[in-house]
Amino acid sequence: MTLVQLDALDLSALLCSRVCHDVISPVGAIVNGLEVLEDESDTAMREFALELIAKSARQASARLQFARIAFGAAGSAGASIDLADAEKVSRGMFADDKTQLAWKAPQALYPKNKVKLLLNLVVIAQSAIPRGGLIDVVVRGDGDAPTLTLTSKGSHARIPAHVEALIAGTPEGGTVDAHAILPFYAGLVARAAGMDVRFSIDGDTVTIESTPKPAPAQADETAPAPTDETVPSRPVADEEPPETALA
After folding, report:
1. Percent of the chain with pLDDT over 70
2. Contacting residues for 149 by C-beta, under 8 A, at least 6 apart
3. Of 85, 209, 221, 236, which has the fewest beta carbons less than 10 angstroms from its beta carbon?
4. Bridge partners of 151?
5. Is the entire prediction scored with pTM above 0.90?
6. Cβ(69)–Cβ(115) under 8 Å?
7. For the segment 18-50, what is each residue's pLDDT rounded down to a tens digit?
């Protein structure tokens, strides 16, 4: 299938829509809590409103910090991002949620696009267990050739619809909308990082594995040059002047 290409304006607009979608719910809850504080005199209701505001503010902050690395230009001054920062923002995303996160990775700087890919795969792994559960993230190897393995285990686990085609850059119908932009973007990052992404499912467990793409085969410079037996040439008659002869 033909690889779908988005121009820069469409890609940035869809990513902005995704970020807004993620933060609008907690921001809206903050507004609701402030309205309660303005209108209520009941102590219990005011305490509830303050708790709602505090919780929603934490959620909005966590989602923005996550998006800053996963989609944005965080760390653009250098070529690497600390995996400890990736773990921190991932745990913030799952705070007070029905999904638990286990993380096993080296304490090291990894190439920026590989870390961005990892964070995008974390979100995809969450969507694989809509009723919640456990996401186990394991990073092996060094930054040049890492293996990223994410295992999602929970009730009604499934490989998200169309996610494999979107990551491959060949979405059904040849179009991408705001709901599909994250796996499509993950595919862009994977190709930029030279990584493959594969999915598998076994019962209530979905596994996402990303490994470096194999290096392209190179021509053997030691192969012998073609001989007269393999590249026939037309004999030149004695009476024909050589091609280098002057007219």
Report:
1. 85
2. 137, 138, 139, 140, 207, 208, 209, 210
3. 221
4. 136, 207
5. no
6. yes
7. 999 999 999 999 999 999 998 888 889 999 999
User: Could you give phi then psi for residue 92, rounded to 5 degrees?
Assistant: -60, -35
Q: Which domains can be identified in the chain, with CATH numbers?
A: 8-212 (3.30.565.10)
Q: Which residue has the tokens 């469409």?
A: 10
* Interval 89-143: pLDDT, tens: 999 988 777 899 999 999 999 999 999 999 999 999 999 999 999 999 999 999 8
Tokens linked to 155: 């009730």
For 185-228, strand residue ranges (E) read 195-202, 205-212
| Dist. CA 154–CA 6, nearest whole Å | 34
Q: Which one, of 145, 147, 143, 127, lies nearest residue 135 by Cα?
A: 127
Strand partners, 205: 153, 202
Q: How many CB atoms lie within 10 A of CB 208?
A: 24
CA-CA distance, 35 to 16, in Å (whole number)? 27
- Side chain identity, residue 246: L
Quote the CA–CA distance of 130 and 62 in Å, as a whole number. 20
Give the whole-angstrom CA distance, residue 191 versus residue 167. 9
What residue type is 142 in one-letter code?
D
Which residue type, as a one-letter code, is found at position 234? R
Name the helix (H) or strand (E) containing 205.
strand 205-212
In this structure, are residues 164 and 140 in contact, taking their beta carbons and an 8 Å threshold? no
Q: What average pLDDT does the segment 164-179 reach?
A: 92
- pLDDT (0 to 100) of residue 25: 93
Rounded Cα–Cα distance for residues 57 and 54 (Å): 5
